[in-house]
Write a structure and sequence with these properties.
Elements (H helix, E strand, L loop, with lengths): L2 E13 L5 E13 L36 E2 L2 E2 L4 E14 L4 E13 L11 E12 L3 E10 L12 E8 L4
Antiparallel strand pairs: 1-2, 2-5, 3-4, 5-6, 6-7, 7-8, 8-9
């Protein structure tokens, strides 16, 4: 291997009034070659957007793998990642386990650690629900709105996106 990759994820669950739970998630990542001409596989890069099930880190309200550096509309992947999520979860049914949630997220991937800009984060908000099926895991649905444009030459927001979750604890 000619690179090193570091990822840090901090999750925090805070009980609120009644059975409401506030979920906070912070993710950071860095990827760097061991020397100037190091070969770093494409699939080791950081990707962001969508439900995160296809490949990469979730950022609801945007298409899969659409957030971060691109070339002619094709995702390049990044060598640095920042993401912050805040969810308010509330139970709908205890048996079967079904809960709803509202979320706010912001995040981005960058070409490298030197290009990290904490003020250049794509923001989104939305609602969703999760159903726990013992033999299948988590089934979920998110409806999120991306507030920022993915095209630097445009100010048109990404808009509404629908995301399905299957088998992930998120």
């Amino acid at each position: 291997e000619e690179y090193h990759k570091h990822e840090l994820q901090i999750e925090w669950f805070t009980p609120m009034v009644w059975k409401f739970v506030l979920y906070t998630d912070i993710e950071m990542g860095a990827l760097k070659g061991l020397h100037r001409n190091a070969v770093i596989p494409y699939d080791e890069q950081f990707f962001m957007g969508g439900s995160g099930m296809v490949y990469g880190s979730a950022l609801r309200g945007y298409p899969d793998r659409a957030v971060g550096p691109t070339s002619n509309g094709y995702p390049l992947g990044g060598r640095a990642l920042l993401k912050y999520s805040l969810e308010l979860r509330f139970p709908i049914s205890e048996n079967p386990t079904l809960y709803g949630l509202g979320f706010f997220e912001s995040g981005n991937t960058y070409l490298d650690a030197e290009h990290i800009n904490p003020y250049d984060l794509k923001r989104s908000a939305g609602v969703g629900f999760r159903l726990f099926m013992p033999m299948l895991g988590i089934l979920g649905f998110n409806f999120g709105y991306g507030f920022d444009s993915l095209d630097p030459a445009s100010t048109t927001p990404a808009g509404w996106q629908t995301h399905f979750i299957f088998g992930q604890p998120f």
